[in-house]
Predict the 3D structure of the following.
Amino acid sequence: MNTATLKARTEIEALKARISQLDGDSLDLLFRQARTHNTWTELPVPDAMLHDLYEIVKMAPTANNGCPARYLFVRSEAAKERLAGCVAPGNADKVRAAPVTVIIGYDTRYFETLDRLFPHKPEFKAKFAGNLAAAETAAFRNSSLQGAFLILAARALGLDTGPMSGFNNAAVDGAFFAGTSVRSNFLCSLGYADPAGLFERLPRLDFSQACTLL
């Protein structure tokens, strides 16, 4: 066993010995009492917090450690107006009001970094380079996963979130990713919400409706 592997195993054993699960308040903050927000206060989100957010999100799992997600943080007034022109009418004011709206995208050529990110399986880079349709499917799936982790990480840092799918992908790609291999997946506003914009929590499916035990 090499030194790096031994260190990784020792670290996870120490972590599980120190904390085995989150407490009730943490679960409320992340899931049980968390809400999707549509209205925002004027409190800013500092750039340093966005750096902190990414440092957390980048550690979450992706297939083959591919890390295909790309995050474009829209925070200037000019960029907000550009994005507002690409979203559904009901979402335009949300984009303008939120301190930050992140475009969660995915790099269709993410496999070009696999030789560095997944070095013990060098054949994976060639595998996806030779099958661009499979690469795009994997990039979209895993960037969706990374976007979900971004929502949880933002909540963990005390931010509120407002994920959105009501927008024109082609328009966003043309406005923000033209000439690149990046494509948009979904949007998520970040900031400190005004709870006055909330309504009652909507129902969820019961275990018996959503889950199967085999």
